[in-house]
Amino acid sequence: MSDSWIVQNLINALNTWNEKLSELWQLLTQSPEEFKGGAIWDVIVTVHGALRAIGLALLVLFFVVGVMRTAGNFADVKKPEHALKLFIRFVLAKGVVTYGLELMMAVFRIVQGIISTTMNAAGVGSAQQMILPQEIVEAVEDCGFFESIPLWAVTLIGGLFITVLSFIMIMSVYSRFFKLYLYAAIAPVPLSTFAGLPSQNVGKSFIKSYAAVCLEGAVIVLACIIFSVFAASPPSVDPDAAAVSMVWSYVGELVFNMLILVGTIKMADRVVREMMGL
Asked: Looking at residues 28-37, what average pLDDT do you find?
């Protein structure tokens, strides 16, 4: 590594970005059951099991309320076709509550299949590493003391921006994982609303919201693939330009591309929700 503080600062910022981007890539291809060795998932499964009993109790309540609100009188309930419809609804709702976690993980695996297919089709299997061009390193090392003063300011601001963006990026992906855990833990309560016709919209909204969180991963992967194309063709460096201009142009274009990626990741939730009409 160069002895120049300016070069070291830029390299450290890029290393932070590369580390967080690699971690993001790993999170997108990992299931909640594997995350952090499965310790968090074990807690979620325990909470889900505890809430399942409450969900079954609420299921009966929503079913009774639904029967009272949809049936004109008791004679309607005694009709074979109406009674059969009510029985099928109750059985299906009970199955959704009882096996809700398995159904939700099936949805997650379907989306993971979409993510894997997208990555394979694009031919991108890992995050593209950002490196500092050798031309910039040599230009900075050839600078005198007074020439390097503006470079300190440029690299300090640029390195700070790159570091902050890398943490914003990874926190956005971590928040998706936490939302998946929250949906899995509390699922029995909203899923119990399928037992009643008037309340089933709550369950439908829950399923659509959960699917939207899963699909966020596909949008983030697409954003990372596009960024990888940018990274494969790094900002051009003019070897004849002054060192300050060279670093300023390189860092500015790099930060701009990173802002696009982070902005897309931050908007992934909104994009998917608009697509699903939520």
From this structure: 82
